[in-house]
Write a structure and sequence with these properties.
The structure holds 4 protein chains of 4 kinds. Chain C contains 14 helices and no strands. Chain C is mainly alpha-helical. Chain C has one domain. By secondary structure, chain D is α+β, with helices and mostly antiparallel strands. Chain D folds into 2 domains: about 35 residues; about 100 residues, 2-Layer Sandwich (Alpha-Beta Plaits), CATH 3.30.70. In chain D, the strands form 3 sheets. Chain D has a 3-stranded antiparallel β-sheet, with no helix packed on it. In chain D, strands 1-5 form a two-stranded antiparallel ribbon. Classes of the chains: A alpha/beta, B alpha+beta, C mainly alpha, D alpha+beta.
């Protein structure tokens, strides 16, 4: 499906989605955390979209919002899509987990939790993946400071 | 060999065992927390981060030229392909026209890297199932590729030969000759791999029907590279999203449908043949021309988000760069193939024996710095 | 009366001329034991060197070549290093059993050496149940492995030890039965008499087809019995690290290591004695020089040792359940049928004799 | 019947495997792929592009080509190059000009990426092909590349 067709199809499912194709080679959808899980489930299960391959899940600190970017691909239709979700709460950011939709999300979400401190609801095993349990702070956030280990140029 | 649960009055107890971080089968500093009942594996929980260097954070303070050499240190067995991924992202963002010569040379080097990586994997695979001699035969052939790299790029492993805009310097005059020598040599040696290990009945018993991964699970777990292709999931980035010179060569995507350890083994052996075919198509007609196009000394990417996927020896590597228009990237994310492939280890190892875990882990071909980044 | 003059009697006769009979026999036994200990400690070390050299040649390497000419003193230096190393142990280990285990293993393998007829004269202990003694002794070693694995309080070691128990109990059966097949021909368990029978052709020729099958089964089971690749479930370095001797260091580790190589020698030596006529030369070409028997014996043994090394450096390791499948589904039934065939052949007098 | 064909095929595959290793065993005399490393130092030659360490070549007049432009320092990702420079007066023209006091190179931090040598506009620094870089003391890994008393070659700046 072309980006336009995708946009018209997906916009009919859930209101208040933001679509954008600027500054990116993919179609970007920005969704609120409340609608994320519903949208993702539809994207996977709908026959026309069938985004069954989550190939990248990255946490991003947009300052001040924190967010997660999902790169999706369909292995049958070979079209790609980017879904972005942002939350303004830096103290206790929470986003629904997509583990039940794509199993690969389990490790990727643990990584995001580890480095950005975003908590994923309904995640089966949400604990730190790379860092030790007693590590303070979330290193990939932009406001993280560590005078000993970080060399700033 | 299927194991049927024996009901008995004996009380059996599960216990934990720490496989790694210093264990011969984990190929590095991966730690697996195994829950075992006798010899049967109940749960595998990887514990990562023993060599995490936070390359993604380091990239945020580096310029775009400097990022490239960090990717050498991720998946060090396919360092050239990693470099290429970053360079392609930057070049696509700048919309640079890359000379044909550069693209062909990059492709040849990528395929050599893939063969070298698979040679090492083959040796280690044999070692993991107990045949120690394979290691040396694999290394013998890999050494020849490393010599080619050293002569042209100046280093054997962390080459850093790519720069945004092309190659750091032109290929060495001996490059073509040596590559051809290697191809003729390897064509006689690769069948030996089959006679020594593939056909061996013990090896087949150890690998067939072990660690089965279905196609649906492979896609859901984000498996890529030989792991995905062994499950019948066509995921070769070189076919579906061709980059560099892959659109001008013909090769077959090695596909198997069994999804077991032996299928993953066969896919990799098949890939070595395909890589040789690709090199043979390109090596005789490397176009003349410049080895790089001029870029600004300080590269500034336009504001936006850029994603590039390439096929490394382990699978799909994605480079995701968010730029705000300055000379440093705002956020760099590497989607490493090993990380996704590791996440399915628990799925394929449960119910098998310790020996099965080792065999399936060998065919996942994990490189720990790639996972830990 | 014995055909072969045993070495013990020679020394004893010599000592009796100097002292009372009781003292002489005890002294003779001690002397012989010390001679054997010295010879086979050194021989074990050279077997290690041989293994390393052979492995190197299989693997396109050169092998040890620094210590002494051609690396001849490499393993001596290694042994010296191991003697000087600290004996570490785990905190919660069962100290007594932990320390006892290596001696169990090394003593059981050294004891087995006593009965071999290296030449007509060189045999310490010509017992009339020789083969039986060998089978019995060689299964004691596994107790040492089990003790070592259990007492060192390490889960990898425990898994290794348990695998070893399973493996040895199973493969003992095949070793015993394949030797029994040959005893059907010889009709005796005494090793010197088994050699005597072979003066009319080595047993592998006398027994032809069933003997060859028995030999193959014996070599497979024997390799498994020594816990060597492709049956090294016990150590399985890619699975268990070092298996049952994970927690051993220094000389105690060296005992395990040495025992493995002496066991390999023993398995090959039994095969030489039972299948290939021990010290007998082919077609009796050196019959007039009986002392040359030692070369024939060692030559044949080392050839079989080389075969086992060839197995080790070529084959992948079996999985633990496949190991048992091989024994109980393949080797054991073949063996049982083979005994019957052999019995029929002997009964119908179809053996080949020269 | 498949029971016996299994055994037969099994033994056959094992023997073919043994033939491969056996072949290498017999040809082992000429086939060794390992090197006798410390013994072959004299004959061991690195490729000319091999990245051993960064050096600054000097000619017979003790002159180098470094103008102190600091491009290598900027290009280095790890901060392994530090240039301590000064301003002086060019004797020929009488103008003020920049010259290097010390070109400090931390080999311990270097990742051999080659960006500094790419960046150098005057080819003042090049790769050396030595491969034995280990020392007993970490401070020895910090090197000053320009020799004492050396100065920049005339005409390099132009």
């Amino acid at each position: 499906m072309t980006n336009e067709a995708l946009q018209s199809l997906i916009s009919s499912w859930i209101p208040d989605l933001e679509f954008s194709e600027e500054e990116s080679q993919f179609l970007n959808i920005t969704v609120t955390p409340e609608h994320l899980h519903q949208l993702m489930k539809d994207l996977k299960t709908n026959k026309e979209t069938s985004f069954d391959y989550l190939f990248c899940l990255s946490g991003v600190d947009w300052q001040p919002e924190l967010g997660v970017v999902y790169h999706l691909e369909s292995t049958t239709h070979r079209h790609m899509l980017v879904v972005k979700v942002k939350t303004a709460d830096r103290e206790n950011p929470t986003i629904d987990s997509v583990c039940d939709i794509w199993k690969t999300a389990e490790f990727h979400e643990r990584e995001v939790f580890d480095f950005f401190g975003i908590t994923f609801n309904n995640h089966p095993n949400l604990k730190r993946l790379f860092l030790t349990e007693e590590w303070e702070g979330f290193p990939l956030r932009k406001d993280y400071e560590d005078e000993i280990n970080m060399v700033i140029k | 060999m299927e194991t049927t649960a024996v009901k008995s009055n004996f009380k059996s107890e599960e216990y934990f065992i720490n496989m790694g971080p210093q264990h011969p089968a984990t190929h590095g500093v991966l730690r697996l927390l195994l829950t075992i009942d006798g010899e049967i594996i109940k749960k595998v929980e990887p514990d990562l981060g023993y060599i995490h260097r936070s390359i993604e954070k380091m990239c945020e303070r580096d310029s775009y030229q400097q990022i490239v050499h960090l990717t050498d240190r991720m998946d060090y067995l396919s360092s050239h392909i990693n470099n290429e991924a970053v360079c392609l992202t930057v070049e696509n963002a700048l919309q640079l026209e890359i000379p044909d010569r550069v693209q062909v040379i990059r492709t040849i080097l990528s395929e050599l890297t893939r063969i070298a990586s698979h040679c090492l994997w083959w040796g280690v695979m044999g070692m993991d199932v107990g045949a120690l001699t394979t290691y040396f035969y694999g290394f013998r052939d890999r050494e020849m590729i490393n010599d080619i790299f050293e002569e042209t790029c100046g280093a054997r492993l962390t080459m850093n030969y790519n720069i945004p805009g092309g190659l750091m310097f032109d290929i060495h005059p001996n490059f073509v000759k040596r590559t051809k020598e290697f191809i003729t040599h390897f064509k006689t040696k690769l069948p030996e791999y089959d006679t020594l290990l593939t056909g061996n009945i013990i090896f087949q018993k150890r690998t067939k029907g072990v660690g089965i991964l279905s196609k649906e699970d492979a896609i859901s777990f984000g498996a890529s590279g030989p792991v995905g292709r062994a499950s019948g999931y066509s995921c070769d980035v070189r076919k579906h999203h061709p980059y560099s010179a892959y659109d001008r060569v013909t090769f077959n995507e090695a596909l198997k449908t069994e999804g077991d350890t032996f299928a993953r083994y066969q896919v990799r052996i098949q890939e070595m043949w395909e890589s040789m075919a690709i090199i043979e198509q390109l090596i005789d007609n490397i176009p003349e021309g410049e080895h790089k196009v001029a870029t600004n000394a300080v590269i500034k990417l336009p504001k936006g988000e850029f994603y590039q996927k390439v096929e490394t020896a382990r699978g799909e590597l994605g480079v995701y760069i968010i730029s705000t228009g300055t000379k440093n990237p705002y956020r760099v994310k590497f989607r490493s193939p090993g990380f996704s492939n590791l996440s399915l280890l628990n799925h394929i190892a449960v119910g098998g024996k310790i020996g099965d875990l080792v065999a399936s882990m060998a065919t996942l071909d994990l490189v720990i710095p790639d996972i830990d980044r | 009366m014995n055909i072969s003059l045993s070495i013990t009697e020679t020394i004893q006769d010599w000592l009796i001329t100097m002292m009372p009979e009781g003292v002489a026999s005890i002294l003779a036994m001690t002397l012989v034991a010390l001679i054997y200990l010295a010879i086979f400690a050194v021989a074990g070390l050279y077997l290690v060197l041989l293994e390393r050299k052979v492995a190197a040649w299989f693997q396109l390497r050169i092998g040890p070549n620094r210590v002494g000419y051609w690396g001849l003193f490499q393993t001596m230096a290694d042994a010296l290093k191991l003697v000087s190393k600290e004996l570490t142990g785990t905190v919660k280990a069962d100290k007594f059993l932990y320390n006892l285990a290596p001696y169990f293993v090394i003593i059981s393998s050294l004891m087995a050496l006593a009965v071999f007829p290296f030449t007509q004269e060189f045999q310490a202990f010509d017992i009339n149940i020789g083969i039986f003694f060998l089978i019995a002794i060689s299964s004691i070693g596994v107790i040492g492995i089990l003790l070592g694995g259990w007492s060192s309080n390490n889960k990898f070691a425990l898994i290794g030890a348990m695998r070893s128990g399973v493996q040895t109990i199973s493969y003992e059966l095949s070793v015993g039965l394949s030797l029994l097949t040959m005893i059907v021909i010889t009709g005796t368990l005494q090793l010197s008499e088994i050699v005597e029978v072979q003066k009319h052709g080595w047993l592998i020729l006398q027994g032809h087809v069933p003997a060859i099958i028995a030999f193959m089964v014996y070599m497979i089971a024997g390799t498994a019995e020594t816990n060597r690749a492709p049956f090294d479930m016990v150590e399985a370095e890619s699975e268990l690290g070092a298996g049952f001797h994970t927690e051993y260091s220094g000389m105690k580790f060296a005992y395990f290591f040495l025992a493995e190589f002496i066991n390999m020698f023993i398995i090959a030596a039994i095969a030489t004695t039972v299948f290939f006529g021990a010290w007998l030369s082919p077609f009796g070409i050196t019959e007039s020089l009986p002392w040359l028997g030692i070369f024939w014996f060692l030559g044949k043994t080392l050839l079989l040792v080389f075969l086992m090394m060839w197995f080790r450096w070529t084959f992948p390791r079996l999985r633990v359940d496949q190991l048992l499948t091989l024994e109980w589904k393949y080797l054991l039934p073949i063996n049982l049928v083979n005994i019957v065939i052999m019995a029929i052949i002997v009964w119908l007098n179809l053996t080949i004799k020269f | 019947m498949s029971y016996f064909s299994d055994i037969y095929n099994g033994i056959k595959t094992l023997l073919t495997g043994m033939s491969v290793t056996g072949k290498y065993f017999l040809t082992s005399r000429k086939g060794a792929i390992t090197q006798q490393y410390p013994d072959n130092r004299d004959t061991l030659k690195m490729f000319e592009r091999f990245r051993g360490e960064v050096v600054m070549p000097h000619d017979e007049n003790n002159e180098h080509q470094c103008t102190g432009c600091q491009k290598c320092e900027l290009a280095c990702p790890n901060g392994s190059i530090e240039i301590i420079w000064d301003r002086g007066i060019d004797e020929a023209t009488g103008k003020k000009k920049k010259f290097i006091d010390k070109h400090v190179y931390h080999l311990g931090l270097c990742t051999m990426c080659g960006l500094c040598i790419e960046a150098c506009p005057t080819d003042a620094i090049v790769w050396a092909q030595n491969y034995e870089n280990s020392t007993y003391d970490r401070t020895q890994l910090t090197k000053v590349l320009n020799r004492p008393g050396s100065k920049v070659k005339a005409g390099v700046e132009d």
